[in-house]
Amino acid sequence: MRAQFVLTRGFWFLFSCATCHLVSAVTAEVVPSLDIGFTFDYDIPGQPIRVPTTAQCETIHLKWQRGNAQGLSPMAPYFMQIYTSTFITPFTIQAGDGSVNEFDYQVPFAPGTRYQICMYDSLGTSGGCQEMYTMIPNITTQNPQCKNVTFPPLLGVEPKSSSPPGWSQFGFPDQCTDISIKPVNGTPPFILTISPPLHPPFNITSSTMDPIDWTVSLGGEIPFFVSLVSSEGFGWSNGPLHAGLNGPTGCLAPGTISKSKAHSVAAGAGLGGLFGGLFLAGAAWLLWTTLEKRKQKLKSHALLDPFKDPYPQIQPQNQNQIPSSQPSSATHDSSMEISGPMIMGVGTTVKDRESSITNTWTANRSSGSNGNEWTPPSRMSRGRAGMSTQLGNGELPPPTYSYADHQGGRDEAVNLPSPPVPEKEVR
């Protein structure tokens, strides 16, 4: 009699839940999770890091509190809903008489079983779910003895999954795809509960015998248990299942944020994408125009004579004594190099500086050309005053023009007269 009373009260809290989502049509839904009215845990005191294992017949100490929960204030008594990987029915156990917010429970499941505990108060306010624990052998005793646990009557269901290969107790229905749970016996109303670890559960209530569809609004690889209970206490559960990665992602935002906020996020994302696209287009246009201007500038520089002396006032006046600066009919690679700033020696004047500038012309003779034919000069440099050997009368030696005899493997040098120094000082 006592067991029947506890069982009835244990399932009554599911149907007294004011926040459960009621459906009457056979349509898949993305529903919000339940609000948390309190929190609980059964961590071992003094253990710095939680180790999610429990020895067979080990006693765990549950404790709960209101804390910073934002849901409805809880009302005693409290109940545990335990899911396991071994059994296909959930266990509902009353956690004390409500006089204190703590409870000791001896976990009876065999080693290798994975279990998960969720809590509710008498009105169906959720306390959330803890993470899944794994049962391990008890090393303190060879034959541990546990208290008996009562199995609720099994509810017949027809589960389906739209993800291939279909439904499985430990399957991977893809995220944002649908699962369907149809009761085949029991009395309405029915409550479908989705319970991920460390997360508030999802509830859908149905008042008919039609299938209850739910869209898997969980990210890929997140585990969860699924259960269905009837008004008279029949129950069914499967799990742990996992959300698969092959489905779409459009359903995930409604399951984590409010609908109005989801719409504002989508609108903000659209505006952000628009301005981001305009910014990128503008940046690309600026980059293109800069490159085009640089290309035109380089092209205009390439049209100039690369051998033109930037200092025309110091060019030799006798143009017959220097090689032609016009390119020949043959194709030549040429370049111009101007040395660093001139360094004037101590006591030199501007005229001395002008007279100390030398021009060295270097020309290469092509292998297939006449031996006396000059090709355009490839380099021009300015000498520095005080660094060249002066003649006895203070004048610089005449410039030397040299070309390499590629056929004979020797260099020939020709000394030409020094160009006259301009009479007028150029500033």
UniProtKB/TrEMBL annotation:
Supply the alphabetized keyword list: Membrane, Signal, Transmembrane, Transmembrane helix
Q: Where in the sequence is the signal peptide annotated?
A: 1-28
- Name it: Fibronectin type-III domain-containing protein
The portions of this protein that span the membrane are 265-288
Q: Does the keyword Lipid biosynthesis apply?
A: no
- Residue spans of biased composition, Polar residues class: 356-375
Lineage, please? Answer: Eukaryota, Fungi, Dikarya, Basidiomycota, Agaricomycotina
**In what ranges is there compositional bias, type Low complexity?**
312-329
Organism the protein comes from: Dendrothele bispora (strain CBS 962.96)
Q: Where is this region: Disordered?
A: 308-427
